[in-house]
Amino acid sequence: MPPSFEPGAPAHGGMIPLCVPELRGNEWKYIQECLDTGWVSSVGAYVDRFENELARRVGVKYAVATVNGTSALHIALLIANVKPDDEVITSSLTFIAPANAIRYVGAYPVFIDAEPAYWQMDLARVAAFLNDDCVRANGETRNKKTGRRVSAILPVHILGHPVEMDPLMALARQFNLTVIEDATEALGTKYRAHNAGQLGDIACFSFNGNKLITTGGGGMIVTNNAEWARRAKYLTTQSKDDPIEYIHKSIGYNYRLPNPLAAMGCAQLEQLDEYIAAKRRTADFYTETLARVPGITPMRQAPWAFSTFWMYTILVDEKEFGMSSRALLNALAQANIQTRPLWQPLHQSAVFADIPHAACPVSERLNQTALSLPCSVGITAQQRLHVADTIIGLARL
Ligand SMILES: Cc1ncc(COP(=O)(O)O)c(C=O)c1O
Question: Is the whole-model pTM more than 0.85?
Fold first, then answer.
């Protein structure tokens, strides 16, 4: 039997955690079935079911399950034919995984600043890079400064909010670039009438522990391209070329998701709508309560977006609020409330120090001022109120 929790009150030693999984559905039952039947490896009915159900939910034809979101991005880049020494346009303000995956295939990221309203990749800056810094010849786009071919755009929908995809797709088509969506933080997110994951040519999801639904660790590649889906399955299963003999005609990867984790994914997916509703309730509460606190800017949703508010985040103006985002993080930690800053912008990371980039002042400012607040699916109204009251108590009102 699963341990029984009081609804929405996970045992974290009195601490209000940033974002922890919610495991109260059929997870135990489905995983037990895998253990009872011995289907514990990366082939099994739950793998097929998780792929089919996720594809249906996102509104794409094919889905291929992977061990995590990073491996999904790695394979998606290979499938999109990104070659060593190519360049891939991506967001500067994101978790590092997509930029790492670009380097796994030997290509180089071109970091684009965030826009200030919704903190996503700034399409005006993508357009400026393509129009001013690139040339088009023989159907290819080349960076004038580095001489490298620009072959793809990898927009990252951060924090549950989408990137503005219409102008992005128009630029991609104009410059002959493949679009790989990093939708790892955006299951259930919509751009206009479409789901994140069905907007580009290929997309990736993650199901790590803090994502909206989790398999502990896991990922998914989704696409409408049958040949790409076949290739994704082939590459993630060590490029096995014969059902019986061990024949391999290309380098492959051991990236498939085990059946018990896929079982957990099926159980989690059954609860996705409830989870989204819970995240949005938390967002509404924080926004209403904190918007009137001087120096706090709540996270927003664009008129063309449906955000899941996967990771609810505020901006803290040090002068107006009376303390910096990092000082607030420490003060909340003292009060047993876990919060987190946003990622170091990737153009500032030591890993990418040699990579030329345009100025990214918005990403830098967001990194200095942002703070993500406790927003687990299971957070209680009382816990949310305590977080907001503690912040208000610390403000220079
Ligand atoms: C934007 C982004 N891309 C990629 C990943 C990688 O996913 P995973 O941790 O499943 O490898 C994550 C999350 O961890 C992420 O937040």
Answer: yes
